[in-house]
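quick one before i forget lol
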Amino acid sequence: MLMIASVTMSAEGHMTFKGVELNGSLQDFVSKMETQGFTFKKHLDSGNGAIMEGSFMGYNNCELFIFTTPNSKIVRLVKVYLPEQENSWYSLKSNYTSSIEAFTNKYGKPKKQFDFFSKPYYEGDGYEITGVKSEKCNFISFWELDRGTIVVEITKWCQVCIGYEDNVNTDLMTQEKEQNTYNDI
């Protein structure tokens, strides 16, 4: 059954990151990212991924988190964290805005976009970074493409995170998690 699913999945195509498909083994994907200038740092504690470091969209010292499916260990998601901007809301928002502009230029307007703070914070109050660290910052945009989803967001770590999620391998992850649950009961 997995062989049939593998053939079906490869026929549908996969999301790409820097021209590399989000598919295949972690080791192969890491090797391909090394040719793109990223450096391997370590494997994730969960055993389902790795962390690398490199440049992305003109930003140096970015962290690249690579996530795999739980059983087959197929790459399904990458997240790039731009450098931290803990001391300046304006720098953080500038990174976010320029990322949104770049993706909009390539893929069109986001399918969904939210740019606001939750109470008691608001943009212009001088406490934006406190709001970010308190997880009251809701700056996030989604592009739903044929092969996957791209998400650009401001995180509680005062970084812009750009995620690329492959539809086919995310479905595989869901199937594997369900199978693991069924095996337990």
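fyi The helical segments are 2-12, 26-35, 89-107, 128-133, 167-184.
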